[in-house]
What does this fold into?
Amino acid sequence: MLLPEALKIAFVYDRSVYDCLYAERAVQSKTDMIAADERLANALATRLPVKWRAHFDPRWNDFNSTI
It folds into this structure.
């Protein structure tokens, strides 16, 4: 049941259901979700398998400063 669990995550973490669908899919798949959104990753990573993409490719750390 993807949607009911994603709704719970969205309410608990004050995030969009859209984003939380991906997080819940990662939970159910027993995999990590790699997020491009640093704030989303930081908010969810303490309790869910969510990681920010810069942890895998350090070039992303400087990406926002070049925009």
The chain has one domain: 2-66. DSSP finds three helices and two strands in the chain. The longest strand covers residues 33-35. Strands lie at 33-35, 50-52.
